[in-house]
Design a protein that fits this description.
Blueprint: H1 2-20, E1 23-29, H2 34-49, E2 53-59, H3 63-75, E3 84-87, E4 90-93, H4 98-111, E5 128-131
Parallel strand pairs: 1-2, 4-5
Antiparallel strand pairs: 1-3, 3-4
C-alpha cells in the first residue's frame, strides 16, 4: 500500500512542480491608459490565485520601452495602442473586461508549460497574435485608445 502511494506521489510530482513554475506576463502600458490600469488590477488579483505569474510592465513613455514597442508593433502589424500583453508566446492586444480578455489571459497562463518569452525575445517573429477585446477598445472620453494620438511617435 505504501509503495502504491509513493508511486502515485512521484507520478503527480511533475504536475505540482509545473504549477509553481513562473509564467512571464509582459505588458506594454502607458500613463493615462484606462485599459492598461484595468488589466494591471486584473493581473494583481489573478496573481493571488496563480502566484506563478511574473508580470513585467513596459511603460512606453520610457525611451527603451517605446523603441521595443515600436519594433514589436511593426513586426506583428499591430495597432499602436495599449495594452499589448505577451503570455506563453501569444500576443493579446487590448483589455476589454475580466470576463472576456481576462478569461483569455487566465487560460493562456494556466495552459503555459514553461515561463515563456518576454517582448525582447520575440522581435524576430516567434509569437502569435490574438484579439483580446470583444468590442472596440475606447478610452473613457470616447476617443480611440491609440498611442498614435498621444504625441509619442
Amino acid at each position: 500500500m505504501l509503495k502504491k502511494l509513493l508511486i502515485i506521489f512521484l507520478l503527480c510530482l511533475p504536475l505540482f512542480v509545473m504549477a509553481r513554475e513562473k509564467v512571464n506576463v509582459s505588458v506594454f502600458a502607458r500613463e493615462g491608459c484606462v485599459h492598461c490600469q484595468e488589466e494591471q488590477v486584473f493581473l494583481a488579483d489573478l496573481q493571488k490565485d496563480l502566484p506563478q505569474i511574473s508580470a513585467q510592465y513596459y511603460d512606453i513613455g520610457q525611451v527603451d520601452a517605446r523603441e521595443l514597442f515600436n519594433a514589436i508593433t511593426s513586426k506583428y502589424a499591430l495597432t499602436k495602442g495599449t495594452p499589448i500583453t505577451l503570455v506563453n508566446g501569444q500576443l493579446v492586444q487590448g483589455f476589454d473586461t475580466p470576463e472576456n480578455t481576462g478569461a483569455l489571459l487566465r487560460e493562456l497562463i494556466t495552459d503555459a508549460r514553461s515561463a515563456g518569452p518576454r517582448f525582447e525575445d520575440i522581435k524576430k517573429g516567434e509569437a502569435k497574435v490574438l484579439d483580446g477585446s470583444a468590442g472596440p477598445s475606447v478610452c473613457e472620453d470616447g476617443k480611440p485608445c491609440s498611442v498614435e494620438t498621444g504625441g509619442f511617435f
